[in-house]
Predict the 3D structure of the following.
Amino acid sequence: MSSTVISNIATLVTNDPSLGDGSPLGLIRDAAVVIDGDRVAWTGESSKAPATDNRVDAGGRAALPGFVDSHSHLVFAGDRTEEFNARMSGRAYSAGGIRTTVAATRAATDAELEANLTRYLAEALRQGTTTFETKSGYGLTVADEARALRIAAAHTEEVTYLGAHIVSPDYAEDPAAYVDLVTGEMLDACAPHARWIDVFCEKGAFDGDQARAILTAGKARGLHPRVHANQLSYGPGVQLAVELDAASADHCTHLTDADVDALANSDTVATLLPGAEFSTRAQWPDARRLLDAGATVALSTDCNPGSSFTSSLPFCIALAVRDMGMTPNEAVWSATAGGAAALRRTDLGRLTPGARADLVLLDAPSHVHLAYRPGVPLVSEVWRRGVREVARP
Ligand SMILES: [Zn+2]
């Protein structure tokens, strides 16, 4: 294994408050990072960097941990351009939303699904995402859910079984039978390929009792819960997530004071997904309220073809700062260390000795530019597991 120092970093985000300026971002000026194999070996001021085999000059750019996108839906086929266009044009659109994607996904070959996934992963990597979670949920049959997870598991460790995305159209007349399938034969087929189990707890999807039954069955099979909670309306999702020690309650758009308190007094991360509110012109989640209460907040893309077709965490950071009351520092923390917390990973989202050597260099002197210069492709280099995978001239 060879060692490499990346020096002459104008501003380094370490996400270790014991370093640098002592803030949650642990900012170090005129910094360097030493990579040994796939791990970070050292971080500090450039002038104090130890000798290494190789040297890379960051040229006064900013560096930060690679983004950790803890919520996406990337195993799908088809496209919902017309639905989006109709919604943004104020026209009614009668096609079936998620059901449209379910039909296209079922009809696709394994190779087509994998090619689509690979394409969006490359797109996300170019924008600085070095870790992503992704879910099933567009198959809704035993075979289609299991193959979605099998395909995802070839690309990430963070795979989530979401057979309970919506009640399968095949069971529209008998939702209870679908819950039995999701907690029975489908779970048996899916559990070997997944780390997590998720449920869309919402009016029109699964109620609190159904969601509890689904998550509890998953836990019994060794899957850990995460929950699509309180996106479209108030409901039991957040409380259920906390009750079951879910790693994350995702969306958190409609919260009571009791929901905010429950999150603040738990290890369940509130994962906010502003791409969904952007793409549906919905009310923004109130990040400020959660942060002021003491909750841990993550930012993720929710990348999916229906309600949030962005793979860009820089875009989500800009939205969170502009519309959700987050400071630039908080938004950057939430898209890196926050995402790692939402996946219960301690080796990601920080640049300190022992962490995975996943980092991003920006064509800017500071991470604040991610919000200050919205829509500008600032990510110029991406290192993953100690290897430079993206290098823009
Ligand atoms: Zn989602």
Remarks:
- The mean pLDDT is 96.
- The chain has two domains: 3-66+349-391, 67-342.
- Residues 67-342 form a domain with the TIM Barrel fold (CATH 3.20.20.140).
